[in-house]
Design a protein that fits this description.
alpha/beta; Methyltransferase domain-containing protein; 2 domains; four-stranded antiparallel sheet; 251 residues; Rossmann fold; transferase; 11 strands; methyltransferase activity
Length: 251
């Protein structure tokens, strides 16, 4: 995870908090109890903690984890500056039962395409673990890339992201391996003015599509509630929507 440690220094420039996504997450969870202050949420793959902190400011009780130590360190520093209380952990997704007991949370959210860093088998298992640590009628919010669009249109990457200060850019290429059914995700963080690569990485992603995600959630004991095609809550369209956002409730 050396790339993510290097990338963490520029993370907030590349991925600033999206107000519409925050609103969609809030709308998913806010009615689980009478007051937000009584609702316990878990942020899976929290990065530098932008969404955890924003939701804590709204009153939610937050716990959050990420596998990268530098991300967690930055998240804790930002939390102190924001004067909210969040328990941050360095943890891998497959180890949540080592840290959290059954029925510990009212809601779980996993955004930023984090879920597909797991293999197909581990995605299936993780969703069952997530169901176990949720209370009855608890909800899960998942946001990944719409891989149906990527595969059907034979796209070789995602649009380049330029930082808010325009000092760096983040290039994202895809190389689909049909026989293995995996995508090599090749990323480069580049100094925009010197055109110098600051860090680069290549990892495997599993191209999880809508029908398969629905199947795994149902198998884990969830009922699908909403499927969106953007943080604005737009209708999901297989060949047009860039993200796939799905919410489900534990039965």
């Amino acid at each position: 995870m050396e790339f993510y440690s290097d990338f963490s220094k520029n993370y907030d420039k590349i991925f600033p908090l999206n107000d519409k996504k925050l609103e969609l997450i809030d709308n998913t969870f806010k009615n689980l109890k009478e007051k937000r202050e009584d609702i316990k949420l878990l942020d899976v793959g929290c990065g530098t903690g932008n969404y955890s902190i924003a939701l804590a400011k709204k009153g939610y009780q937050l716990k959050a984890f990420d596998i990268d130590a530098e991300m967690i360190s930055l998240a804790e520093s930002k939390m102190k500056e924001s004067r909210v209380n969040i328990d941050f952990y360095r943890l891998g997704m497959m180890h949540i039962k080592e840290k959290f007991n059954s029925s510990s949370f009212d809601g779980i959210y996993i955004i930023g395409n984090v879920l597909v860093h797991l293999s197909q088998t581990k995605i299936n298992k993780f969703l069952k673990l997530a169901a176990d640590i949720l209370n009855d009628n608890g909800k899960i919010f998942i946001q990944i890339v719409n891989y149906h669009r990527i595969l059907e249109m034979d796209l070789n990457g995602l649009p380049t992201i330029y930082s808010q200060d325009n000092l760096v850019r983040f290039e994202r290429d895809y190389r689909y391996q049909e026989q293995e059914n995996i995508i090599y995700f090749i990323t480069r963080l580049i100094d925009h003015f010197e055109d110098k690569i600051l860090s680069e990485n290549k990892i495997e992603l599993y191209p999880l599509c809508k029908d398969e995600l629905e199947e795994y959630l149902t198998e884990a004991g969830f009922e699908i509630k909403n499927i969106y095609g953007s943080p604005n809550g737009d209708q999901y369209r297989e060949l047009k929507s860039i993200p796939l956002i799905m919410t489900a409730e534990k039965r």
